[in-house]
Amino acid sequence: MVNSYTPVDYDYINQYNAERSPSTVHSQNSALTRFFQRQLLNRIISVFKFEGLPEDWNYDYFINVLLVAGFVGVVETDKYGVIPQHCSLYGRDVFYQPTNIVVSNPLIKGILRPRIGEECALIKLQPDYRGVWGKVSFYADALALTAEAAGLNILNSKLAYVFASSNKAGAETFKKMTDQINAGNPAVFIDKDLMGEDGRTPQWIAFAQNLGQNYIAGQLLKDYQSWLSMFDAEVGIPNVGFEKAERLITDEVNGNNADTSAQVTVWLESIRRGLDMVRKVFDLDISVDLRYNYKNNDGDTDLPDEDYDEPEEEGEDEDGDIIDTGTV
């Protein structure tokens, strides 16, 4: 695999970016979308709790590379010691898995190509080496569209009037009158010439009076909460179904907890395998756990324990039979 400094054609760039930001209905490349991207990424960062990270590791760099790029390499350098680094993958073994990483950092002398599991460690978020940016972008687009629609609907739901004036001076007077009304003044005084020829008939009419017919901001705000609940469920943040607030039965609560823990369990196991490799290669004792409680209604949890992959030593069970724990 080429590194980030290798010149490539546009078709390769499009294919590379599509893996992290799937082609879908994008609202705009707007500040609102980027705002939600940052907020959603922070929500995912809050899911994990690391312990034992070296003090000279920049946690913000480490967690952002792991989540966005999908993997982070841990290498040993002459100047900085053992540090995490953004990297590319290189080589292929019999299982079509990468055998080396490529680290190219201007502050590190030369380009490093250490072998995974022997000279370096690789911590990946998912089995397919992908990050969370595609998921973050999808929900950020949806939230931006919903928020934009809600704001526009609220704006369009303001009561509007049409004024009829015979000259520019009269029109300016009407503008000042409406400004004072919208400013909240308790009383506004006008000249009787602004009324009709009889002096009693107003020279304005309401442009739209049936506001409730077009007002959907309330439903859009519910949709906003639904998008956010869906995102939380996919990234491991416990929540109750936003649209199922009443008469929530036990099985539905447990089912929601299972949905919430499904994806984050895969992430947790993958990260722990990478940390086991860090412990093996560099003798660094780093652990990771989840910040939230995923217990079901019976008090049990389906999440793996910290030592989930530690093999049992060969020995005898209670009946005196030999336990064979040989690896495949």
Question: How is this structure best described in words?
Answer:
With 328 residues, this protein is α+β, with helices and mostly antiparallel strands. It has two domains: 1-132 and 246-311, Upper collar protein gp10 (connector protein) fold (Beta Barrel), CATH 2.40.500; 138-218, no CATH class. It contains eight helices and eleven strands. The strands form five sheets. It has a three-stranded antiparallel sheet with strand order 3-2-6. The protein has a two-stranded antiparallel ribbon with strand order 1-9. The protein has a two-stranded antiparallel ribbon with strand order 4-5. The radius of gyration is 30 Å and the shape is elongated.
